[in-house]
Fold each of these.
Amino acid sequence: MANPRILFLSPRLPYPLNTGTKIRISHILQSLTQVARVDLVTYGDEQDLEDLKRSSCTYPGFWSYLNSIQFISSPPWPEIEPDNYIRKISKSLFDGYGIIYSSFPMELMRERITPLLRRADLIWTERLYLATRLNEFCQKIVVDIDDLESVKIRRHASRQTNFYLRRMMIRESNRLERTEKNSVERFLRLAVCSDEDRNLLGGVDDRLWVIPNGVGDDLMLKKEVHRDASKIIFVGTMYYEPNQDAVLYFCRDIFPIIKASIPDATFYIVGLKPPSVVTALHDGRDIFVCPDVPDVSPYVGSAAVSIVPLRIGGGTRLKILESLAYGTPVVSTTIGAEGLDLQHDQHLMLADTPDDFAYAVIKILRDSGFRNHLAATGKEQVRRKYLWSTIRDRLATDCQNLLQSNRENN
C-alpha cells in the first residue's frame, strides 16, 4: 500500500512530555509515522506549540516525520468535575453519550479537519468524545480510549457525600459505560491500556486492541545514585483530582503511622501545578512539595520507595512503571496498579488499608535486602513487558496490517 495517510486527532498537544497522557500520545504518533503519512490536528496552548517548534529544529526526533501539524488554540473547557455537574447536566439531558461528550468543543476541530477526513485511509482519535462526532467515518476510525471514563466517574461517585450529586454521577457513569461498550462494534478498532479494560468492554473481540503504557528505554539506563533510606516520594500531575485525593489520604491516614515507627521518614510530593490544598501540606521538615520540577529523575532515583495510594481514577499508571524503571520500589493500592502485569510481593507491594499501606512502606524502608529485591525484580518486569520501543514496533505492525486490510475491503 503506497503512501497511506492517517489523520490523527488529539484533544491536547502532546508536548511538553510532562504528563502520562502526553507521553502516551507521543509514542503512538511516533509508531504511526513508521507506516504512514500522519497529519496531526490538535488543541493546545500557543506557548507549547512555539516551544515544540524550537525543540524540533534543535532535536528533530519523530516530530519532523509528521506530514503536517494543524493547531487549534485551546478554548475554555473545564474538566468535568463534581462541582460543575449541576451546571453541565442540562446540556446533555437529550444526549445519549454523556456530559463530557456534549461539552467538548468539537465544532472547531470538525471545521478544521473537513478537507482531511475523506483523504485519510485511517482516522486515529485520542478519546472517544472526539470519535462520536464523526459518525459517517466510523469504519475508518481507531479510538484510543486510554482509560474508561465510566470507571473514573463511578469511583468518584462512591466517595461523594452529596446524595444528589452521587445519583447524577452514577447516572452519568451508566451512560458512559453504554457508550463505551457500544463503541466496540461501532468503530474499526478500539485501543485500551490493559487486558482488564478490554474485559470490561467485552473481552477478546479482535476489534479491541491492548496498547499498554510503557517507559522509554533510556530510563532503564539511568545510573544509580545515592538513595535516602528514609525518603518516600509521590510523583504525579497535581491538578488531577485523583492525585490530590491520594496525597491527602496518605498524609492524613498513612504517614502518621509510618512516622510513629520511623521518625526521620520524609515525604516528597513532586508534580505539575499543585493546588493550594496540596501546597499547604509542605512544612519543610517532614513533608516537601516540589512543584513543576523540570526533571523528576533525581527525586525518584534518590527515594527509597515510591507510593501510589490512589483510590479513584482509571487507566494504568506511568508513575509506577517509571519508578520501577529507575529501580525504586513501589507501594500501591490495588486500584493504583490495576491493569499492570505486576505481582504483589514480587514486583511491588499492594495495600488497600492505611495500616497495610504503612506496614508495606515501613518494611521497604527498614529492610534493605527486601528493598533491593523489589527494585531488581520490578525493573526486570518493566524491561520484559513495558518498553515503549517494543510497544511501538508492535503497534506499527498492527496498523500496517489494518491499513492493508481496510484497503482490500474497500
Amino acid sequence: MILGSAAVRRLPAVVAAGILLALAGCAGTTDAPPASDPSGEWSKPPAGAVPDYQLGGAYEPAAEVGIVGRDRSAEPAPGVYSVCYVNGFQTQPGEFDTWDADLLLHRDGEVFFDPDWPDEALLDTSSADRRERIAAQVIVWIEGCADAGFDAVEFDNLDTYTRSDGALSLDDNLALATAFVDAAHGAGLAAGQKNSAEDAGVLRERAGFDFAVTEECAAYGECGAYTEVYGDAVIDIEYTDELPRPFAEMCVDGESPASMVLRDRDLLTPADEGWVFETCAG
C-alpha cells in the first residue's frame, strides 16, 4: 500500500511500516509508551504548566502560560510548549469539499453529520483502504504542524464511533489513531488524545498516545479517567457556560488536573467581547 504523499514518504521506514500495519487494523496490545522518545526528538507537555486554548484565534499568551493549543492553520506560540489541533476523524468547518465523497460516512445514502456539530461530517474509518486514504490527508497536516514548529499534536473526535449509529467501531478508530500517533512521533511531535475519557486506557496502551487534552473533565467528573492513565500529562479546558461550581473550587480539587484553564465557549480573543481566560495560578 502506498500513502502517496511526500510528507509520508519522508517518515522513517520503521514508522511508515508501523503506520501501514495500523491502517490494516493490526495494532496489538503493547507495553505503555515511554514518557519521551529516548532520542529526545519529542517530549510530553511540561507537568503542571498553565495552559491556554486558542482555537478561536491566536493571541499573545499571558506571562504565566507555559502551554498553548492552536489550530493547525495558525503559527505556534513562541517560547511555550505548543500543541497543534487536528480534527482527525471528521471534517473541519469549511473543509467539507476537500474530502473525497466516499471517505465521508454515509447512512441511508446521505452524508452523516455529527449531531452536535452539524457542519462536521464523520469520516468513514470502517475499512483499511479508507483509513489509508484518510491518513494520507491527515499526515500531511501532522507534518505541517512539525514544520511550523509545534511541539505536539492533539487529535480530536476519536470517539466518532459512538455517534455513528453502529457504522464505525472502536477498533476502526483505534487503527487510524495508531497511524496518526506513529506519524506524529516520526515527525518529532508528541501525540495527544483529545476527549474520549472512556477509551483513555486502550488509546494509550495500544495507540501510544503521550498525553491527553480534555474539555470539561472537572465539570463532568471525568478527570480521574485521564490522570489514572496519563498522570500529570493532562491538559483540561473548562468552559464558563457549564460550570457546576466556582472555578476556584475546581482548582483546589485534588481530582482536577494541575494544568487547567477556564475559557469562554467560543474561545474568543482578548479583542472580542465575551473573552474569558482564568487560570488556577490566580
Amino acid sequence: MIDSPLRFTPILVPKVWGGTRLASLGKNIPGDEQIGESWELADMPGDGPCSIVAEGHHAGTTLRELLNTNQTDIMGSVPLNAQDRFPLLIKFLDACENLSVQVHPDQQWASTHPDAYLKSEAWVVVDAAAGSRIWAGVVPGTTAASMHAALDSDTLTEVLEWRDAIVGASHNLPSGTCHALGKGVLVAEVQTTSDTTFRLWDWGRQGRTMHVDEALACINFDSPPPAEVPTPTIAADGTTDTILAETPWFIMRRLDAVQPATAKFPLSNAPAIIMCLHGSAHVTAIAGGTRLAPGTTLLLPAAMQEATLELGERCGLVIAVPRG
C-alpha cells in the first residue's frame, strides 16, 4: 500500500522569459540557464514528461507507473483525467521577463481539437519585484474585432485588465481568460494537466509562434471581473485557512501559521498536493513523515486518510485537491 507522502524530482523547463530565482526555492539551476518553470508534479498526455519519485521505497519510479499499479491508493475515489493521467500539473514559475499574452482552451474547444487539452489554472504570488504586474481578463466591451485592431496597432495592453503583483495574492485563471504573468513575479501554480497555450502577443520578441486565430476563438470576452480577496478562516492559535480557488477540477487553499501550530488534514478519499512557500513544516502519517522546506512539494496519497501538519513559525502552504 502507498500510504506515505511522495516527493518527486522537479522537472526544470527553460524559457526565454525565465531566470534563476527558482534557486531560492531549492531548485538546482544549471549555470546561468534561464529556467522559467519547475514542474513539481506532472503526468503529461502522450509521451510527455512524467514525474519520478525522488526518495524512499519508490525512488526512481514514475508517477504513471505508480498509478498503473496503485491507482486506488493514490487517487481514492477521484478518477484520472480523460487521457488517463493524474489530473493536476503543479509548478513554480519565475518570470524574469513578461510572459506572452496568452489564453488556454476550455473543454468545448478541446473536445473538437484532438491535440488540445483543457487548461484551467490558479496562481499564488510567492515573490514580486516593485512595480510588477499581472494581466488577467479584458476591459469590458472588448470584442474579438477590437482586440484584433489592438494587435494591429500594437496597443493590446490597452484592452487588458491588470493589477499589481502582490506577494501572497491569488489569481484564479479559468480557461478562456486572456492573461500574462509580468516581469519580476514568481508564482506557485496549480492547473489541469495540459500544456496547450495559444500565444496572442509576445511583447515584441521574435522567433516564437503566435496563435492569434486560436486565441481569439478561445477568449471569454464576457469573463467576470477579478474576484474579491478571499476571507480566511482563523483558528484559535492564529492559523489561517483560506480557499483561494474552487473550480470543477480542483480546490486550492492556503494554510498560514504565524507561530508554530499543529493541524489535522483529512484526505476524504482523495489525494492532496502540498507546496511549501515559506517557513517550514512537517507532514506526519502512520507510515512515516516528511519535512517541508520552501519550494518543496509533496503528494499525499488518498490511502493516508489523514495527515498531521506541524507548521513552523511563519509557515505558508498551498494545498491542492483534485476533484472527480
